[in-house]
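re: that complex we talked abt at group meeting.

here r the seqs, copy pasted straight from the sheet so there may be weird spacing, ignore it
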Amino acid sequence: MIRLQYFARYREELGRDGEQLDWQDSFATLGALRDHLLARGGAWQVLAERNLMCARNQELCGLDEPLEDGDEVAFFPTVTGG
Amino acid sequence: MAVRVQTAPFDPGTELNALHAAQLGIGAVVGFVGYVRDYNDGQEVAGMFLEHYPGMTEKALAKIVAEAEARWPLLRVEVLHRVGALTPGEPIVFVGTASAHRQAAFEACDFIMDYLKTRAPFWKREDTRAGTRWVEGRDSDQQAAARWDQ
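got the structure back, here u go
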């Protein structure tokens, strides 16, 4: 199981704040998981943005980050706090 | 070291004074306060909502503070960030650093803000006459944070 979360503009554009996906061996990296979501088409193209940021288990990481069953993954636009 | 994420307003003066309290080895305290402006990117701003990633936010801020403490001899650090609804003129963020001498406090405060702007999961949504809009990240913030890697 992968627990996915979407924040801010992505949450609004995707119409959901998160979801759970059954684990698949093809989710080898965070980038592979993103490809799986992009294949849904439509609004999911927002995850192809150049400024996309992501986190694995609440730590910032890159798309080459390896994934494991049970991970929490988040996709979000560039952060704008402060 | 203290990290707080809260919806409640705060008084920057109280936070600044608390940093120095009961530690006579502190010779320098630097405080940064970020405020909500009433104008941004060509539009009047009536209010703002700050979204965050509960759980990760606190961890990300603690990691940034730990990195500052590893780089400079700090005696106290406080990071306080508001979330939820805010109006123009309200403080959003307070970063306070305390050290024996001023240079460490100045640099660490600057560093913490640069990293907070680019690594802590907060997002601003502004209310304008034209509707609500998400604030976009700035390249200048990324460049400011990159200075500390050189």
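couple things i noticed - Chain B touches chain A through 27 residues (CB under 8 Å). Strands of chain B lie at 2-6, 28-35, 39-40, 43-44, 47-52, 74-82, 84-86, 91-99, 122-128, 131-134.
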